Amino acid sequence: MKVHIWGASGYAAAEAIRLLERHPAQLGVLESRSHAGERVGDHFPLLRRSPLQFDKESVIENARAGDVVVSAGGHGEAKELINALLDAKVRVIDLSSDFRLDDRAVYGLTEWNRAALASANLVANPGCYATAALLAMLPLARFGPPLQWIVDAKSGITGAGRNPSVGALYAEVTEEIRPYGLEGHRHEPEMQRALDVHGLSAPLLFTPHVVPLSRGLLADVYALYEKPPSEAHVRAAFEEAYACSPFIRLLETTKAPSTAAIARTNDVEIHAGMKGNAIRVLCAVDNLGKGAAGQAVQNLNVMLGYSEETGLHERAIVA
Amino acid sequence: MKVHIWGASGYAAAEAIRLLERHPAQLGVLESRSHAGERVGDHFPLLRRSPLQFDKESVIENARAGDVVVSAGGHGEAKELINALLDAKVRVIDLSSDFRLDDRAVYGLTEWNRAALASANLVANPGCYATAALLAMLPLARFGPPLQWIVDAKSGITGAGRNPSVGALYAEVTEEIRPYGLEGHRHEPEMQRALDVHGLSAPLLFTPHVVPLSRGLLADVYALYEKPPSEAHVRAAFEEAYACSPFIRLLETTKAPSTAAIARTNDVEIHAGMKGNAIRVLCAVDNLGKGAAGQAVQNLNVMLGYSEETGLHERAIVA
Amino acid sequence: MKVHIWGASGYAAAEAIRLLERHPAQLGVLESRSHAGERVGDHFPLLRRSPLQFDKESVIENARAGDVVVSAGGHGEAKELINALLDAKVRVIDLSSDFRLDDRAVYGLTEWNRAALASANLVANPGCYATAALLAMLPLARFGPPLQWIVDAKSGITGAGRNPSVGALYAEVTEEIRPYGLEGHRHEPEMQRALDVHGLSAPLLFTPHVVPLSRGLLADVYALYEKPPSEAHVRAAFEEAYACSPFIRLLETTKAPSTAAIARTNDVEIHAGMKGNAIRVLCAVDNLGKGAAGQAVQNLNVMLGYSEETGLHERAIVA
Amino acid sequence: MKVHIWGASGYAAAEAIRLLERHPAQLGVLESRSHAGERVGDHFPLLRRSPLQFDKESVIENARAGDVVVSAGGHGEAKELINALLDAKVRVIDLSSDFRLDDRAVYGLTEWNRAALASANLVANPGCYATAALLAMLPLARFGPPLQWIVDAKSGITGAGRNPSVGALYAEVTEEIRPYGLEGHRHEPEMQRALDVHGLSAPLLFTPHVVPLSRGLLADVYALYEKPPSEAHVRAAFEEAYACSPFIRLLETTKAPSTAAIARTNDVEIHAGMKGNAIRVLCAVDNLGKGAAGQAVQNLNVMLGYSEETGLHERAIVA
Q: Residue B75 — pLDDT band, cuts 50, 70, 90?
């Protein structure tokens, strides 16, 4: 059994390579159209020590039944490939938005879908915004839907990918706070669908922002109620929801999540509190970690029967 | 008539010096306990060309009746001084939070208080968070109070001042998004009081964040209604509120405010829109400009009978 | 007489627009292939208040004899256009490297070429690295050539232009110091030629670096001598060289240049000192200001008979 | 045998804690006067997962003969303590500059001093600037001293420590390149002494700069010769010098070091090349890694007989 990566030259793919290089599963083909034959360490400073190269061979010709492919290309690029892989009994974890609303796929928000993921053939890995927002929202299901959801989210720029665009240039990102998608954003139907599944359907107002950092995402979720639960009940809901989730850190009520504290990890920091009729939940993830490649590896672990934490914590080599 | 600056070694004071150096009013004493006798340009790169020095003399001994003092020290530092100045018929614009809840002071949110400011002896200059939030909220007064206010605000680090603290160090701010004040923040009663005055009393949930930039602040204001007004009415409310306000730019509904676009100015960019039962207003200011020294100069203009824009736009020297 | 800008959608062009908008010379056509018909303020935050648009008309069809064209496109893009403009008796200031080694052009390092610039038809505006390095080197001409020149220069990323490339992405620039051009750089022959002209021919070792800031460039110049001059003579050489140069600030020997102090200006900060047999001169410029558009306007002033500072300092509007 | 850390609340100390937590040696007391009794993870995001606390007990009362103390306080703070520890047969690795010129101490530039380090009682851990510069200079010993050394170094701001100062504030570091120590710098005698020891005495001109990044340091070393060696000989000198040094990466001649590639590691990237009569060597280290805590752990490994790489590479936990 091998794990292949397709579309292997973006930021999420590089993070997947970094994680899988330390993972007991065997790495297969790293397919990148643009960098075939080149060392991964020549393109990504964090991989400088890696002996790996982007392969000249293709995933489609090398993946065998039972293998897993992590598809990390741009939205819309891999639909045909993935269908062909599924036909060949290859399992797929897709990091794009292509299958997130598709009934054939299991939605890969690990903490909320472990059973289905274990036997999934196609996993739609959640977007980074949806990951942070839903981890903050779903524990509230026991209280029923609120009157209104508000999600105010702040993301580092690597969420925009490594395909160069004016908006991702250093000089455009630094000293700027950039709200966008004010008319609607790809992640909204993704969130809405998961809320529907969990009985949390309510109007959702979502405002994404780019802020000047490389990695990290904070979602501030506000849920308004006519008759809100008590803070103790809210707290209990989160504690129960994530009691067996090793990557989730529920913070004391006086403490706030820190993107620096979860950078380059699959960790999640959550503050859950109340004020008046509103519940406020703050949730920090690394947009390339738990928001993309980290969660993909976490899902891979569930799919392949590894412990959920396999390959996702670091320790030193003792020689 | 002279304009003096007290507590002249912080970031807001430096911005006030920069603006007043180009202003037709005569500059008086620049009092800084720590930098007396030193050139302002040695401490602030933006003032490098300035021939000014921090004075060895004191404001209290030099200010005369009819003069204006801009008080720019830390919260709580200048209360006694200001009382003494007022006794001496010196007019004061105070940038600290000391008088914002004090009935003797006129609240210096210029666009909403021009008449009272014209004859004010003591102006409580609004905080940067309150400035951005209230400019986004007050035009909604005609619709009555909402069910709930939510203010999610992101600020550059100069809002924390120039007095060195661990939290303001480069290495603590970079690659970090830092929510704070989750248990309550100095700016909340300031906002609440202005909302009360304008008939907009409603529960307020305020979340301030530090994001890694030097200057700039974005407030995302969400107002929830049972029966919200139409988007056209919302739009009209803002257009009428700010028709005669030269620093406010109402953006087209598809466009978002940019902190880079208002940095080092007294300008304000506002996006006002609706979604479902919620009004969403985004408002960007420079925390040292419209959020502090810029608004102080704007208030000074109103107090002294200058045009409101005097000294607040730049043009080139033609020799 | 009008001043037109060709290639008007890059960073240097935007800075030229910002400066020329405040300049008494009449602005003509702003030609941008990609942004024709759009507002300049929609593309550049610093121009947000500007009413100007990128024109749909072309420079070549509108420029008349005696007009000036500032050519701000990429290297190699405008050679034919410029030849056609010169044929039509239009004067040209070219910001690219295309004519810097061409005998037909006057090299636009203003402080060292005022007389020739006054009557120039074609000005090759110096590169940002060459500007900073040569301003630090040329005053040493009276001491004859050194044994060796070393130029270690650090630049903000806007020097790479606004055409998106992976290397200019935020995530590639932040937390990185990137030496480049180790095998040779476009700016070396440009510097070498100017050194030859001034009798300063000597081996030149040049190391450019990108550091994580938007605007600003520091060149550290080291000149090695067998028998070096005294520090007093070095100091005197700089004082005499720049006695009538309003943009050059010679710093006291204990002070170092600051890129923050010269950002968004045409100013230059220079530290000149000695240690053992080496002269060390540090020179800071804004790569888009004195290193590009600022110097272009300075040259325009000389060409058109304006005072050299016209349009290059800011003051406030007094209404 | 235990390893204790004194002065445990600075950036280098935090990095030492991070590394030693993964190291097979047993951690003893973490002494911090300011944070005693508090969790290390509350002060340092990178340590958020750590269960460790700053101790209320003192190093001096707990260290036993044969233990090692990593002293990580400010310069001058621990001299007395270290003398007392040495009297008690406790071995000390001192990160400050206090003993770098002291004949009792072994200079801890690991690659050049392994034999002496193995039995050292007091190790003076090199400064970050000296580490990068000397790793670039010492392989040239076989060619004899050059006519002149020039070291132009760029450092991230964590080199200034975590004790808050105006110069280390975010707003002072961002968008700035700051040369300093133009009249002389603490690191110069440290470098000069090591050069003397290796027969490389020559005039040294050193220019340190702060650039806006958190971690990372690049030293550009220029060595001028009357009759320089060939590039092949230079290359060979580096290959031989570092053939058995697992942290040193000699780059191909077309490639440049990257601070991003060595951040949070003990790795070193070196480019060595020639041009005319000058050798140019560029050397990148993490100022907190190989430039401080990483090298301290590397030295600890040598002192205690561990493999030199123990605890200094990361791999994933396989559960």
A: confident
Amino acid D60 reads: I
**B200-210: average pLDDT:** 97
Closest CA to B268 of B97, B139, B111, B100: B111
pLDDT confidence tier of residue A147, bands split at 50, 70 and 90: very high
Predicted local distance difference test score (pLDDT) of residue D74: 87
CA-based nearest residue in chain B for residue D172: B170
Residue with tokens 């036909």: A87
| 8 Å CB contact between C248 and C268 | yes
Q: Does A318 have pLDDT greater than 80?
A: no
What local confidence, expressed as pLDDT, does residue A135 receive? 98
ipTM of the complex: 0.96
Both tokens assigned to D24 = 């097979």
- Whether residue D309 and residue A315 make contact (CB cut-off 8 A), yes or no, is no
Q: What is the pLDDT of residue B158?
A: 97
Interface test mutation site (partner A, options B155, B175, B177, max chain A beta carbons within 10 A) = B177
Decide if pLDDT at C319 tops 70: no
**CA B154, CA B166: separation in Å to the nearest integer?**
19
Residue A53, pLDDT > 80, answer yes
Establish if D251 touches chain A: CB-CB under 8 angstroms: no
- Give residue-wise pLDDT tens across range B94-109: 999 999 999 999 999 9
Please state the pTM of the whole predicted model.
0.97
Output the 3-class SS for chain D. CEEEEECCCCHHHHHHHHHHHCCCCEEEEEECCCCCCCEHHHCCHHHCCCCCECECCCHHHHCCCCCEEEECCCCCCCHHHHHHHHHCCCEEEECCCCCCCCCCCEECCHHHCHHHHHCCCEEECCCHHHHHHHHHHHHHHHHCCCCEEEEEEEECHHHHCCCCCHHHEHHHHCCCCEECCCCCCCHHHHHHHHHHHCCCCCCEEEEEEECCCCCCEEEEEEEECCCCCCHHHHHHHHHHHCCCCCCEEECCCCCCCCHHHHCCCCCEEEEEEEECCEEEEEEEECCCHHHHHHHHHHHHHHHHCCCCCCCCCEEECCC
The C-alpha atoms of residue C50 and residue C5 are separated, in whole angstroms, by: 16
**What's the sign of the alpha-carbon dihedral C132, C134, C137, C139?**
negative
User: Residues 25 to 84 of B: which have CB under 8 A from any A CB?
Assistant: none
- Beta-carbon contacts of C42 under 8 Å, excluding residues fewer than 6 positions away, are none
In terms of phi and psi (left: phi > 0; alpha: psi -120 to 50; beta: otherwise), the region of A75 is beta
Domains of chain B as residue ranges with CATH: 2-125+291-304 (3.40.50.720), 128-287 (3.30.360.10)
Query: DSSP letters along C173-229, please?
Result: HTT--EE--TT--THHHHHHHHHHHTT----EEEEEEE-S-SS-EEEEEEEE-SSPP
| Residues in chain D within 8 Å Cβ distance of C150 | 150, 222, 278
pLDDT at B171: 98
Q: What b-and-e string marks burial along A163-191, b requiring 16 or more CB atoms within 10 Å of the CB?
A: ebeeebbbbbbbbbbbbeebeebebbebb
Nearest CA in chain C to B25: C318
* Tens-place pLDDT, residues D129-185: 999 999 999 999 999 999 999 999 999 999 999 999 999 999 999 999 999 999 887
Kindly state the average pLDDT of the residues D184-196: 91
Question: Over 90: is that where the pLDDT of B177 sits?
Answer: yes
Q: Is C128 a catalytic residue?
A: yes
Which residues, in sequence order, are CB contacts of B223 under 8 Å at separation 6+?
Answer: B137, B140, B146, B148, B149, B150, B278, B279, B281
What is the β-pairing status of strands C148-155 and C122-124? unpaired
Tell me what pLDDT residue D90 has: 98
Give the mean model confidence (pLDDT) for residues D194-212: 97
